[in-house]
Structure formats: C-alpha cells, structure tokens
Amino acid sequence: MKKRIEMKAKRLTIYTHLVTNIKLNHMNISVTGNGFLTSPFGKTKLFFIALVCVLSSTTIKTLAQKQSINGTSLSTPPGTSKIWGKIDGVNIEGMVQGPATEITPLQVACVFEYTEGDIFNSPPALPAELNGMVHLDNALKGLITDIRKTGRFSGHALETLLMTPPKGMISAEKLLLIGLGDRNAFNPELLKAVGAVSMREALRLGVTHYAFASDIKDAGIASPTGLVAGNVVRGAMSAYRTQAYLKANGMGSFTPVTKLTLLAGMSFFNDAGEGIKAAISEFQ
Asked: Which end of the chain is more exposed for a tag (fewer CB within 10 A), N or C?
C-alpha cells in the first residue's frame, strides 16, 4: 500500500510540474511550420502527449524491474553456486555453469530427438555463446550431434547413453545423456522420471556427487525453469529414498550421494533456485 501511495504521489508531482511549465510558457510558445501549437486545442494535445509519454516510461521501467526480479533479464555471474537445501544428507546445489566445464565425476545432459540444426538455430535455441549444449557438443568435436543425426542415439524419452570422454576433453569424468523424446510433446512432468533415472545411474556407478543439466532452453523449447528444476529434484530424491528403503530391508547397497548439482544459465539461476527450494520443502 505504501508503494502504491508513493507511486501516485510521484505521478501527481510529475503532472503538477507539467501543468506549471505549460502555464508559465503559455505566452511564449511559438508557431511551428504547420501551426500545431497555435490553438488551445494544440496545447492541450501537446500536454496529454507529454503526460502519456511520462506515464508509459514509468510503466515500462516497472515491467523491466519485475522481469529482472523473475530472473528473465537479471544475469548471475558464471561460477556462482548456492546450496539451496538438503534432503536425507544430499546437498542440493545450484550452479551457473555449463555441462562442458562443470568439474564432477558424472555429468548428466538431456537431449531431444534430433531435428536438423536443433541446438544451433537461434532463435529459438539460445545463442551459441549462452548455449551449454552447443559448448558440450563442440568440446566433444560434434559427437552429440553426430550420434543423434545418424540414429546411434535417438534421444527417445528416458533413453540413456553413458560415455567416458578422453581426459581433458570436458571437465566431467563421465557423461550420461538422457533422452527427452519428441520436442513438440514436451511436458515438464517428464523431468521427474528423468531425475529418477539420473539418480539410479549415479548410484549404480557409485559416484558421491553428480551434476545435472536439463538443456531444454538450449534446444529452443520454452519451459518453466523453476518447475523443471524442481521436478528433477523430486524425481532424483524419490529414487534415492527408494534405494535407501531397499538397503534398509537388506535388498541392496549403495554408496551415498552427498551432493546433486543442478546447472543453470546466467539468466535462470534464481528461477531455478525457487523451484528447487519448493521441491526440497516437500521432503521435509
């Protein structure tokens, strides 16, 4: 309420200043080439045009600020990380980093079924300099595009492919690709199952930490950042609890995971964090 009152007061002040200036200069306004300012109607029209411009500018600025708060235009520096919370001893971390450069025993990256130029055509894909999947594909010398284009890896929903790149090619020791299926049929709910698959593979490999990159926006698909990140956590930690239940009943064993890192682009870090925190709260 206080902010609304301040905004109204600000607009009233602007209005008063404009009226005062027009009155003071009433007798000094000169005639333009087409005589627009010579009539009282012309002066009134000029006043309202000026007033509309001022109020429109204020509205545009307010919308821009809201977009920044929502993470759509506010950039977070690369390398920024934050532990958003913990579930059953597993730290859930957010990180502004790409899948090619994240240092981790296991990097998970998601891909849709192949369409020509899908990660390179921008828009709708993110620009190359901001596109983590493009960076990953380039680091692997085009391998991800090649295996999808040739059908060696189709990218069907929940299809997996594990690879061990030569040391130094990417920062991760191993790379796990998980398919997202048909891009035209994408639903954020799929990320619960994708998150579960990622955790089961991490437990099978015996890693204590792994990183996850959904890469959905890299492929040009608009998606709700917070919901996608939250669903990854929901799926991954549900799978983790299932394995813990089996272990407690003598039906299996595994090396505990101590940290799950969800990678995000510079403009999506905060939105992802809100979704992650919402998911964490459901496990408390």
From this structure: N
